[in-house]
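hi!! sorry for the late reply, been swamped w classes. u asked for the two structures so here they r. pasted raw, havent cleaned anything up. first the sequence of the first protein and right below it the tokens
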Amino acid sequence: MNQDTIAAIATPFGEGAIAILRLSGPEAVAIAGTVFRGGKRTPELQPRVQHFGRVVDGATVLDEVLLSVFRAPASYTGEEMAEIACHGGILVTRRILSLLLNRGARMAHPGEFTQRAFLNGKMDLTQAEAVMDLIQAQTELALRAAAEQLEGRLGARVLEIRESLLGLLAHLEAHIDFPEEDIEPDTTAAMLERLTAARTKIAILLRTADQGRVLREGVRTVIYGEPNVGKSSLLNLLLGYERAIVHEAPGTTRDTIEETIDLRGIPLRLVDTAGVRESSDAVEREGIARTLRHVERADLVLHLVDASRPATVVADPDRLLVLNKTDLGEHSDWQNADGVRLSCLTGQGMDALADAIFDRVMGRGLTMADATVAINARHQACLQEADRCAEAAWKALAGGLSPELAAIDLRAALDAVGDVAGRVDSEALLGRIFSTFCLGK
């Protein structure tokens, strides 16, 4: 695959001031040179400098552009690369891409530039995945976590665990394979201690799985309650604009409405749901059924009630009780209720609600410090397998079993840890990871 020269438009589809086309592969600079006319021949262009010129198709000038060349291995992919910055019209960009493809390049697959960077050793797999996290980050905290991972912070921690397991395995196998060399083995207690330390580091990373999911996917937050308690009003207030229809008629919201907001660095995926009540209307009943399904899958439920009316529900400690319409006065039934009091009409109490939501999320273990290293679901599966194998090795050593059995389990743990950073042979796995990338990256 890496013998091909690939090309793609690296900027989003549509009109803009500037569009960028990228080429990577053995003939990247040469192919760019066949369409670029500037002051110098392309092979003579200084790398990593923008050069003004024109893209031509025969005698036709397509656009005035800036061309940058990057010589291997000092490029993003580790290969010869060229980037053409042209005017951001849809037609001109497509014409230049078509010209590059006609001159010998092929269309890049989604994520293929980053995949080549990984295959050429420019980054490990955790860093490659961080590229997409960086692109998709919706909050400052998610952005910081992705940037830390892109710099190799997660990869460094994984490498530290791998080196620890590798040293332990090497010592154990040397003792197994060359007993006549009189290699002094670690005592069983010392080996168990080293293995326990490695498992502790694995456990620390595993504890960041929830943080990783929150930062990448957001906290699924359902606004739940009876009709006319102010659910849509709360959604609009949190978003800062009129997203949902607000009307005094019960059952106005028939379907769920989803939007994402940034709450102090944490993405909240807000879901406004249909009011829960007994209904003979088939459409409303379907909306209520969807509400209940969303509640089951929610990370956080904001249970909204009308505080000016008698209590008709029992507070659930797993849900955040929100007492709305306090501007109308609070009914005595809610006097001792442990919840957040607010008025969607006046906005009073919104800061207290933000504090309560933040505390609920942070109470699940999400901290600003830990969020700089947050594993994803693939990392979690690999580390769980590594821990399972390391535990089996620990039991074999502690139980006085054959060292060969412990070595087998240690090798399996080592392989599982290696898979996190990308020491893998599975093309299917790499295909799944990089297929989620945008075209041109």
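now the second protein. again sequence first, tokens right under
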Amino acid sequence: MSPNIKLAVIASEDQIFPDHSGFDWKNIQKAMRYNKRKPNRIRGASTISQQVAKNVFLWQGRSWFRKALETYFTKMIEWIWGKKRILKVYLNVIEMGDGIFGIEAASKHYFNKPAKNLTREEAAMIASCLPNPVRYTIRPMSSFVSSKHWWVMQQMNILQADPDIQLLIYTRSASGKK
């Protein structure tokens, strides 16, 4: 798949993904304060790793029991799989539109091309829908995706030079070439 989509989802969903051990504690604390102030508008703080744990091993829904299991599976995949595999699994299982799962399906559905050929802007559009891919549509483009994809592209420009992100988004062959 294109390095553009890897960079776009990190920029959009979890900018400290290379550096955390599965949890963004600062974001979790912010979400807890927000949710206490506005209990009718729940804000999440899940990292890419937590979303993979939930989507691969668990069921949808909100309960303390499911959250405890998500914590367990998040730690396990961080220890066993590592960041590259977590990112790859995330991009292959996440919903990217109503009934559209995985980046290959999304790329073909929205842009009629394989995921390896996604441009920066196309990748940013797909990443922008991820908070709620059924509500925030790419085709037709919702106002949320229309405005957020420009922000995602700016974040991509800032993050792309980070050496830890470079290691995650580019796959090296046995010969050492990108």
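hope this helps!! also noticed smth abt the second:
Residues 3-169 form a domain with the Penicillin binding protein transpeptidase fold fold (CATH 1.10.3810.10).
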